Amino acid sequence: MDPVRNPYAPGAGQRPPELAGRDREVRQFEVVLERVAAGRPERSLVLSGLRGVGKTVLLNALRSLALARLWGTGKVEARPERPIRLPVAQALHAATRELASRHRDEERVEEFLGVLKAFALRTTVEERKGLRWRPPYDTPAARGRADSGDLELDLAELFMDAAELARDLNVGVAIFIDEMQDIAPPELAALCGACHEISQQAVPFVVVGAGLPHLPTLLSASKSYAERLFRYVSVDRLSREAADRALTVPAETEAVTYSPSALEALHEVTDGYPYFVQAFGKATWDVAPGSPISADDVRVAAPEAESELAVGFFGSRYERATPAEREYMRAMADLGADLGDHQVPTADVALSLGRKPQSLSPARDGLIKKGLVFSAERGTVAFTVPHFGDFLRSQRT
């Protein structure tokens, strides 16, 4: 079939043509936006799950909902070792621009921008490296507001002022934070503290975070009340019905159908993971001679899809690891063959390598920092990427 008409989108964070299986999360967030704008209490939101399940796609979809309601929005992508003060300032500056064009009181807008600039200027030159954005030059920095140097206090005051600016327009402000698990623990605690403060004031401000499966654990460790502060949503693989919809709805726009056996074959190879659904759907479309797409087309396309995943999805991550870290992951994969690649005891990894657990801590910690493994429970590790154990085991055959 015509590859130009191929409707599938296996890109990182790229929205698929059909956002299947996320209706419940979308409806929940619509309620949050309406309640917060109406001045009713509501919790911020945290999405967690493995890589490839569509957390970033869902995060962006929720942001689109806020934009459709004329909220001010901004997005932060957290990174290891990078302080969040300036990225948060940048996100709120973007949110302010969305509000400023509709706000009648230019002086109020300028006052907030002054507070934003004061908040941003508490960063060091070192902390600004790698960021092109700078505070607005044409606005003088305010004094005595969000500039104490105490991140929790400064965030709370900045969020409060941003929310009050939005409330003048009967809307709110929402900040979306991707890769939230990469925020340093002290800053994560400060963010939780600020969210706790604004939630008590019932101002129209929402934080939506997304991260790996251990993010709820990190939040709970940073502040004891974090368990009650956020609404936690586990983003997982798609049901069979949703996975079929992700394939068939885009195809129908091009007058193409799938045979039942083709859908069965695709579900078997993708296991319902959204990224895999898009990757195998795209490869299958490209090899299929016509409609309806058959199970034979899936079988012909599978090696091509698997080859692309081996390079771009699995291989690129494996290459980031050091030799010691790769050895650790291979041991995890061998142990995971009997455990479905779920949590693997770190003691068993050490035993399989003939090493003391303490000597493997640097490799384990390095893998966690690189986002290749996570630890949801003390003494265990698991891959952040679905089917990563299968990939590593296949490299030995």
TrEMBL record:
Question: What molecular function does GO assign, one term?
Answer: ATP binding
Which key words tag this protein in UniProt? ATP-binding, Heme, Iron, Metal-binding, Nucleotide-binding
InterPro entries in UniProt: AAA_16 (IPR041664), Cyt_c-like_dom (IPR009056), P-loop_NTPase (IPR027417)
> Which Pfam families is this protein grouped with?
AAA_16
Region named Disordered: 1-23
Name all Cytochrome c domain ranges: 167-280
What PANTHER family does UniProt report for this protein, alphabetically? ATPASE DOMAIN-CONTAINING PROTEIN, DNA-BINDING PROTEIN-RELATED
Name of this chain's protein: ATP-binding protein
In its UniProt entry, the species of origin is given as Tenggerimyces flavus
